Amino acid sequence: MSVKDDLEARSGSTCELCTATNNLEVFEVEPVSISGVDSSILACETCRTQIEDPEQMDPNHWRCLNDSMWSEYDSVKVVAWRMLSRLKSEGWPKDLLDMMYLEPETLDWAKATGEGLAEADKIIHRDVNGVILENGDSVVLVKDLKIKGSSQVAKQGTAVRRISLDRENAEYIEGKVGPTLTVIITKYVKKI
């Protein structure tokens, strides 16, 4: 069975956020350390569009979170928490957030994208040129780097795809150089 089939079985072929039944697709909940059912939800086009583009937010659409925030699945709760955090200036989402409880590791996952933080408190990762880096971006090394714990040297110009951002330090990202997952300092990379 595919991830979509598993999610359809789990959700009864409805959007796990608003219960819509049309235009359902798999939505991976960032950051994705392992892809699959546990890190994904089944979401309709309306929900996906508004999650990905805050400019298209319709606060009334998200009143559905009153029900979906109680889901037994962490990926659904994480998205519900993030959307409620994004909308908390509306008033009613703040009340729902106050009622919501997430286990510490699930709350860390929910906060991993910086949702719910004031702009001044967000950790922003920038490359050598000051361009903002996001989870999943591809970068290229701007100088030769020795891979710690290995005799390997990553040459200038090496592409590192699908990077992950360090949630606590704006100077560190993680990515695979060859088969090795390594930490890279942001001042040594340029976004592709």
UniProtKB/TrEMBL annotation:
SUPFAM superfamilies, per the entry: Prokaryotic SH3-related domain
Top-level taxon in the UniProt lineage: Bacteria
Domain PhnA protein N-terminal proteobacterial span(s) in chain numbering: 6-52
PANTHER family: PROTEIN YJDM, PROTEIN YJDM-RELATED
Name of protein: PhnA protein
